[in-house]
Specification:
single chain; seven-stranded parallel β-sheet; 16% strand; binds NADP nicotinamide-adenine-dinucleotide phosphate; binds ligand F7E
Length: 328
């Protein structure tokens, strides 16, 4: 039985990945932090076969102890402060966890895994936010980085640290440059879920309007369930490498609103939307659109869920959750 250690198991991708790896026959270990973390219950109810281990990406000795205890074949480093807006307000903490956390996790793999024939394979959750103020469109593995937030800067550090540990120590360390991926497990702070949840609540008469920032930004949005499979495929390759994972299709926040309200059967959506300066960012990423040709050719990976299907799936989930909550 293969053993996988996932950091960020309580997050959107950690929950998808742990289920995917369990169906592949893995024994899954998830790193959880803090005291009495309320998300632990959700994760355990969803996948009772997971074993949880306590540690923190800010604490190297906890990571070394966990890798020693778990003896993983594969480590998926998904833990991070991942909300770009928060990273502007807590820049140092973001650098500490999203940036230095990668170095610490790699150090634990290097120290416990030993020298040249380190048996532990490592996945780093890199991000399209590293492209930021894009130098070319669409973006691929060779597009230069120009991050626009403390989050993006920290991810560039994590990305190059992963490349460096691969080159310097021969670790099988791969980096997935994933574009935005969403789904019903997405946090309510991110724009897709904020929109589908608000539209469901407006449809149910529980909310009058939704306050948003920049409606013109465009993102390449895919389904998280599809994207975690690409992570796993990277670690099954003979050689470690970097891969862009994306749909190749971009939509604006305006398109997202139009689609979600249309699915809900509401045409005059503009009257429900208020623009609020609080949701604008000090520096914006205007357009992201990925070229995933390499992932398609080398990993045999491609997205299955379309933008329309994604919005529909999220809206229907929110409609069900919100009506159940209202009935209680
Ligand atoms: P998410 O839902 O925000 O989950 C983040 C996870 O990190 C949570 O489980 C959180 O645990 C954990 N974490 C935070 N601080 C930690 C610390 N000090 N030590 C250990 N764990 C800590 O993020 P996601 O959407 O699943 O994304 C997974 C990874 O992919 C992240 O690294 C993100 O930056 C990256 N990424 C995401 C996307 C996307 O579109 N979703 C795209 C590209 C890259 P708690 O429950 O304890 O808070
Ligand atoms: O914003 C605009 C906002 O917060 C998307 C993370 O998973 O993907 C995610 O980062 C866009 C931005 O995601 C609101 O200005 C307008 O242009 O949903 P988001 P993100 O910043 O793209 C990348 C790939 C990651 O790696 C990150 O971890 O939507 N926007 N109005 C808004 N965004 C939010 N959150 N809230 C608004 O009210």
């Amino acid at each position: 039985m293969k053993r996988a250690l996932i950091t960020g198991i309580t997050g959107q991708d950690g929950r998808h990945l742990s289920q995917f790896l369990s169906t592949k026959g893995y024994q899954v270990f998830g790193l959880v932090r803090g005291q009495n973390n309320p998300k632990i219950e959700v994760v355990q109810a969803e996948n009772p076969s997971i074993e949880l281990v306590e540690g923190d990406l800010r604490d190297l000795s906890s990571l070394i102890a966990i890798v020693e205890q778990v003896q993983p074949d594969e480590v998926y480093n998904l833990g991070a402060i991942s909300f770009v807006q928060l990273s502007f307000k807590q820049a140092e903490l973001t650098a500490e966890i999203t940036g230095l956390g990668v170095l610490r996790m790699l150090e634990a793999v290097r120290i416990v895994g030993g020298g040249e024939n380190n048996p532990i394979r490592f996945y780093q959750a890199s991000s399209s936010e590293m492209f930021g103020k894009v130098r070319e469109t669409p973006q691929n593995e060779n597009t230069p980085f120009h991050p626009r937030s403390p989050y993006g800067v920290a991810k560039v550090f994590g990305h190059y640290t992963t490349v460096n540990y691969r080159e310097a120590y021969g670790i099988h360390a791969s980096s997935g440059i994933l574009f935005n991926h969403e789904g019903p497990k997405r946090g309510l702070e991110f724009v897709t879920r904020k929109v589908t949840n608000a539209v469901a609540r407006i449809k149910l008469g529980l909310q009058d309007q939704i306050s948003l920032g920049n409606l013109e930004a465009k993102r390449d949005w895919g389904y998280a369930g599809d994207y975690v499979e690409a992570m796993w495929r990277m670690l099954q390759q003979d050689e470690p490498d970097d891969y862009v994972v994306a749909t190749g299709e971009a939509h604006s926040i305006r398109d997202l609103l139009e689609t979600a309200f249309r699915i809900a059967g509401i045409d005059d959506w503009e009257r429900f939307v208020v623009q609020d300066p609080r949701f604008y960012r000090p520096a914006e990423v205007d357009l992201l659109i990925g070229d995933a040709s390499k992932a398609r050719e080398k990993l045999g990976w491609e997205p299955r869920v379309s933008f329309e299907e994604l919005v529909q799936m999220m809206y229907e989930n929110d409609l069900k959750e919100e009506s159940e909550k209202a009935a209680r």
